[in-house]
Design goal:
With 246 residues, this protein is α/β, with parallel strands linked by helices. 33% of the residues lie in helices and 26% in strands. It contains 8 helices and 15 strands. Strands 1, 2, 3, 4, 5 and 8 form a 6-stranded mixed β-sheet that branches. It has a 5-stranded mixed β-sheet with strand order 11-10-9-14-15, covered by helices on one side. Strands 6-7 form a two-stranded antiparallel ribbon. The structure holds beta-D-glucopyranose.
Length: 246
Amino acid sequence: MKALGIDIGGSGIKGAIVDIETGELVTERHRIPTPRPATPENIAKTVKAIVDHFKWKGKAGSGFPTPLAHGKCLSGSNLDESLKGVQIDQLFKDTTGIDFTVINDADAAALAEFKFGAGKGKDGLVAVITLGTGIGSGLFYNGKLIPNTELGHLSYKDAPFEKYAADSIRKNEGLSYKKWGKRLNKYFKHVKLILSPDLVIIGGGASKKLDKFKNELSVDLNIIPAENKNEAGIIGAAIAAAEGIR
Ligand code: BGC
């Protein structure tokens, strides 16, 4: 079976058709910069442009980079406050004319890692932590997704931890990998304290760079990089659509 997977991010909206049995992209990725302001209408139009690009009529899923429950956006997060309260799956259906499954982007990445990546066959409590514009989390327990976690919003000095340790902060503040790694170490110590995961899988753009900061991670956690790299969000969104996860 094939499904269209779309990954909505802070800087780009990317889609591809995914073979659900193999986890492979069967088309090139199509990327459109995230419209600004990232209002519901502007995002929906961009999603429609991706659906139209592939002339897609089948199952479609999207990862969304905000807190979300049952396809409804709970806060604008790094996108736009006007998204809060919007039933995103319904909006995408109304705009594109096809059914959409919409889940949190880090939950989507976690689904992909579990089915086809670093989480395959791993039991116990596994946290996929994505480091990008924000910090996202997708939790698995004995192979089942526990949806909607927001471990980037753990508090540090009265602000969400992601405002201190996301990859975008490293770039904006011009932090060396050493300095950033030290911040991440503080973050993962916090994660360890409240969750004690058996395994942490680092996803998002930073998964490729783990070698540059892993020496700073003295925290007593088993931390490994994701395998699906930039494609995890797309693959996971397609899995969610095919399996009707919402
Ligand atoms: C959002 C999360 C999202 C993460 C990664 C955070 O700012 O609140 O929902 O998963 O960024 O995109």
